[in-house]
Amino acid sequence: MNINEIAEEAVKLKSSGYNCCQAVAVALASEGNLDKDNLRKISAGFGGGMGNMEATCGVLVGAGMIAGLKTEGNATVMKSRAIQEKFREKCGAIKCKDLKTITDGKPLCPCNECVRNAVLAYGEVMNLA
């Protein structure tokens, strides 16, 4: 699967009941060495912005988890920061509360778009086609 297909898979997962962090982590499972079920479980508490506290969007937590698996923990902070920066360019913010802020009758970036854009940002940073 290419990164666009993975992004669409993540959106489908989100639409089927996974939280945003789970959708990103599970869709990107092939990048790490954990199976999808364990990724679903380990990412369960990070939907809605870090345990639903409206902080950093859960999609970025999921992407950061997978980046850690992919890099085996080497320079993961720099990769995670770069993913966040790419995501901010696409969505306008990185905090769940800000992304959900309603202006002109719609959120800054709807959840499905956040899921899609996190996977795409991961792909750009990790040089996936």
Fold and architecture overview:
The protein has 129 residues and is mainly α. It has one domain (3-125). It is 60% helix and 3% strand. The protein contains seven helices and two strands, in the order H-H-H-H-H-H-E-E-H. It has helices spanning 3-15, 20-27, 36-42, 58-71, 76-91, 96-99, 111-125, and strands at 102-103, 106-107. The chain has a two-stranded antiparallel ribbon with strand order 1-2. Strand 1 and strand 2 form a beta hairpin. It starts with a helix and ends with a helix. The model has no long low-confidence stretch (mean pLDDT 95).
Largest sheet: 2 strands, antiparallel
**What is the rounded distance between the termini?**
9 Å
How many beta-strand segments? 2
What structural class should be given to the helix and strand makeup?
Answer: mainly alpha
> Judging from the principal axes of the Cα atoms, what is the shape?
globular
Spatial order of strands in the largest sheet: 1-2
Q: Please, what is the average pLDDT? A: 95
Number of domains: 1
Unreliable residue stretches: none
Rg, rounded, reads 13 Å
| Helix run count | 7
- Give the assembly state of these chains: single chain
| Proportion in β-strands | under 5%
SSE series: HHHHHHEEH
**Considering DSSP H and I runs of 4 or more, what fraction of the residues is helical?**
55-70%
